[in-house]
């Protein structure tokens, strides 16, 4: 296998002449100049190039566009909600690509509460699917901060995570079937609604998480869940991350899979909130060094308050928890969540030297926090805000200048800090991209830390699916 | 992509000369003549060819064996517990392959109850992993009839299902990371214990379910779960499969994900038990036409009996259930399960005209049972025993001669019956292999019913991973 040395041919621009070719192939309302919103990305690291956006109305039009791009050797950047955090939705240089937006494919084709399945097109906005499911007394559990603009195609293409992964899994765990178009325009109809289907290789999971580099997902059959009968939310002050993990174990021993979220919050994050977003209500008078947010979704017959009280009482006795608050109302639960959810915004306002979306085996996590902190303290007086999805071993480990420090000056350390953090993550058997993906930001990291055989296989797969290298050029793998 | 017309080169036999080459590469105790047990399969449809079994002691030896086989163009049949039901563990004709047994790689490398992860070698027997997890108060939820001999490598290679899929997913849903050897002997070290890891294409799911045709899984990091605090088991008589589905919905509305199993049992199955295994205790004096077995695993604080009683009471009122028994003890729960678990043995003793491992979208399932029954009744006085994992939409739909009919004579109808059932499954958006896989038995079915683009991609993947076609030749894809 794997004659991977074949260089990919140069790409042609998606220029006016190419747009003219598309005019005969798709509804002309789906063809428009690429305005700024398609070329920007949330962190402002890259600005994309591109003259034209194609927004096909159906899978046949997607196939026609890809077929034309394949024939002409034109690059294609698949575009969902544009909310990705690693630059996979932009191509900042080279021949301007065609931006292929799924925004006009927004049908929820079916939503069956007995099957617990929704069949949706790739352009459906996550929050719209949440609402449609709720209207049928069902839950589509994938949720994250960008739910108001992120689209299903992008969420699947990047295997999105979020706050409910602990209970319901990543995006890939919610997919039963896919419809997708391959780079040469062939349509794969794999839109099965089956829970079990052992008929051949798993193409579904190959496309999920491939970040638009192997094809374009156009529709998906997704798993829905029952809505838990009762919710219980608490904030608990813990002495350290090790105790937080023990509290997670204790909670799971008591309520099993009913732990929907288990989020770690550092004192630094609370101080950032006080500094930049003082309107966010402080849960505790004095900011604790570590706390966790516990969100339980319980079946009928279990009282969430009683369950939480029982868990916290045992945790107090075992000295895993020193203080705790249980939400007494939905409003208070929302307030607790607000603390967690506004931390990224406070981080943005402070401005980081380097941000890291990392994961570790759960049992290595407390050791990592200790060791990384010690190493960085030796490098300088950085502030570290380490928070995130503890139950998944996924930390957002972000490093900031000292209070009053000049951000631009401290950014001279960005490269060294990132390398230090990522090297330690790798040494401790973790991942340098837990949920955000590789995009453009982490291509070098993948080359540095990825298993060499896996990288060879990835390049061979890319060559096989997309020999002209038109799909999302430069994302995931160097061209 | 996809110059799939390249014919694969002829294979060389794994003869004594090849065995001599292996002697220098692996511990000689791992090399032995292929006795009958490696050449038989449970249904007796095929008898394999093969002179030699290699049983490597570690991943390095597996790599050495595959590298030698790749170089020599010798076929390799990966061998786990030999319990597969579609012949994927045997090669009945052609140049005798090397049988590569994982039986000496039986280490449970680690089992961490805080991480909820076990790292195990491919030769570990499922039941041994069950016991090791239980000793740490954890559950490895994959379970099926052959648990006493099936090995982890084979269970993952075939993406095994079983009775707990409804709650915990298929084998693939339980895998965090893999170690595997590719057909040319390269070792992929992807043995991560991470819950989230978005660093590149998902090779893990490509190998899981590939039935040994793309490489050999040598170890896996597997998810464990908390053991539910309380179990409740009931048998409920339902008027028809539609009511059974409504009962499933009702049960999930009440207890959420706590439904571990939801199995359909047909009256025909009970009559087969009476005829062939009269020692199995009848739960109801008169065999009902349809019943379901419900198994709940509940968190602490919920009384299983009370939960089941509440569900059944509401089901009585709604006329979904006409009679029910709740297990009053663990012994009685085991007795109820015994009814379900002995049905395949009763089937075997009766002897089927044709057996089908099918799945359907849940909402098409009652319609399928009606339509298939009507069509088959027109074909002849067959007895139909239709049972299985209703919650997953997975039926074992088996067709038998009329009482007193001569099996050999009625087997003249096997082909027509199979075609009829599978055509209807396909028409109703189902799968002709829900959990058993393709193996040798369903190669033609895959060609007939598989999406043509998927088949093209599968052939290209096979060509890319295994250009000499040495891996499990003739399984999944025609050589």
TrEMBL record, chains A, B:
It holds the Pfam family FAD-oxidase_C. The lineage of its organism: Bacteria, Pseudomonadati, Pseudomonadota, Alphaproteobacteria, Rhodobacterales. Keywords: FAD, Flavoprotein. Belongs to the FAD-binding oxidoreductase/transferase type 4 family. Gene3D superfamilies: 3.30.465.10, 3.30.70.2190, 3.30.70.2740, Uridine Diphospho-n-acetylenolpyruvylglucosamine Reductase, domain 2 (3.30.43.10), Vanillyl-alcohol Oxidase, Chain A, domain 4 (1.10.45.10). GO terms for biological process: respiratory electron transport chain. InterPro entries: FAD-bd_oxidored_4_C, FAD-bd_PCMH, FAD-bd_PCMH-like_sf, FAD-bd_PCMH_sub1, FAD-bd_PCMH_sub2, FAD-linked_Oxase-like_C, FAD-oxidored/transferase_4, Oxid_FAD_bind_N. One of its GO terms (molecular function) is catalytic activity. Residues 39-227 form the FAD-binding PCMH-type domain. This is FAD/FMN-containing dehydrogenase. Its cofactor is FAD.
């Amino acid at each position: 296998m794997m004659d991977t040395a074949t260089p990919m041919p140069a790409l042609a621009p998606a220029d006016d002449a190419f747009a003219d070719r598309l005019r005969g192939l798709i509804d002309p309302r789906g063809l428009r100049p690429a305005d700024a919103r398609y070329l920007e990305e949330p962190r402002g690291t890259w600005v994309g190039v591109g003259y034209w956006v194609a927004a096909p109305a159906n899978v046949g039009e997607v196939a026609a566009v890809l077929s034309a791009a394949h024939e002409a050797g034109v690059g294609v950047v698949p575009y969902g909600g544009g909310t990705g955090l690693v630059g996979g939705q932009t191509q900042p240089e080279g021949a301007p690509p065609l931006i292929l937006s799924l925004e006009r494919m927004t049908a929820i084709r079916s939503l069956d509460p007995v099957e617990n399945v929704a069949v949706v097109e790739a352009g459906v906005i996550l929050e719209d699917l949440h609402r449609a499911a709720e209207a049928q007394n069902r839950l589509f559990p994938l949720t994250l901060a960008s739910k108001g603009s992120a689209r299903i195609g992008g969420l699947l293409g990047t295997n999105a995570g979020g706050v409910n992964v602990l209970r319901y899994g990543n995006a890939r765990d919610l997919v039963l079937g896919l419809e997708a178009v391959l780079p040469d325009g062939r349509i794969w109809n794999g839109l099965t609604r089956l829970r079990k289907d052992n008929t051949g290789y798993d193409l579904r999971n190959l496309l999920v998480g491939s970040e638009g580099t192997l094809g374009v997902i156009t529709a998906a059959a997704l798993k829905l869940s029952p809505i838990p009968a009762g919710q219980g939310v608490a904030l608990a002050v813990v002495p350290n991350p090790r105790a937080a993990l023990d509290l997670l174990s204790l909670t799971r021993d008591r309520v099993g899979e009913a732990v929907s979220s288990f989020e770690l919050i550092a004192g630094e994050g609370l101080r950032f909130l006080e500094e930049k977003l003082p309107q966010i209500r402080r849960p505790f008078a004095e900011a604790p060094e570590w706390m966790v947010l516990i969100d339980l979704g319980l079946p009928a017959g279990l009282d969430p308050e009683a369950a939480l009280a029982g868990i916290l009482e045992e945790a107090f006795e075992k000295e895993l928890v020193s203080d705790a608050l249980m939400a007494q109302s939905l409003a208070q639960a929302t307030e607790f969540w607000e603390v967690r959810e506004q931390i990224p915004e406070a981080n943005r306002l402070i401005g980081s030297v380097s941000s890291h979306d990392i994961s570790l085996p759960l049992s290595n996590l407390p050791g990592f926090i200790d060791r990384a902190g010690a190493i960085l303290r030796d490098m300088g007086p950085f502030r570290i805000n380490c928070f995130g999805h503890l139950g998944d071993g996924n930390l957002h480990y972000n490093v900031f200048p000292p209070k009053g420090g000049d951000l631009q000056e401290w950014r001279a350390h960005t490269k060294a800090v990132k390398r230090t953090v990522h090297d330690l993550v790798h040494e401790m058997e973790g991942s340098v991209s837990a949920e955000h993906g590789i995009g453009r930001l982490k291509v070098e990291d993948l080359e540095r830390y990825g298993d060499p055989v896996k990288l060879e296989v990835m390049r061979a797969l890319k060559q096989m699916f997309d020999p002209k290298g038109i799909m999302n050029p430069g994302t995931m793998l160097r061209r």
